[in-house]
Amino acid sequence: MVEAICTAPTGYKSLGYNKPRIVGLDKEKANIQNALGQFTNAWNEYGVSIVSDGWTDVKGKPLINVLGVSATGAVFLLAQDYSDKFKTGMNVVELLLKNIEAIGPYNVIPVITENAANCKAMRTIIEDKYPNLFWSGCLVHTLNLLMHDIIKLKENEYKWIDELYKKGKRMIRFITN
User: Fold this and answer.
1) What is the domain range of residue 146?
2) Within this chain, do residues 35 and 75 fall inside the same structural domain, yes or no?
3) Does pTM top 0.70 for this prediction?
4) Which residues of 126-160 are buried (b: 16+ CB within 10 A; e: fewer)?
């Protein structure tokens, strides 16, 4: 590369600092928006589900992800860092309402969140503001809670479920780490 620079034609001027930073970034953003269009264009016709999930990153920061999911696929909309806030229903619902308004309230059908108390508190706020929407708890979270209840029974005939569940959790931890 150094040789190529040294043998550059006389009078050649390399790109300045701003052109790749501003023009290149804007061009790439337009390319990404165009690529996402294949997913988001169908939202007006078929509708979209807003899916929200809270988790903790590898540094221990609490995050909330928001996705738009439809028949054409899932699109990551944003992740919000909640290190400086409590994950109360009011704080989280603001995030979801911004996304609903950005997508268009009549394009959104359900809002799917965890079954935690703060997420259930969002239900009335969302359904009051947008009567055409409904809130739904996450089925996977519901099944996970059900598994915990079955495991708590401590009866010998369900002991294999506890062992299977723990193996699955170890496998997930291994893969994610």
Assistant:
1) 138-177
2) yes
3) no
4) beeebeebebebbeebeeeeeeeeebeeeeeeeee
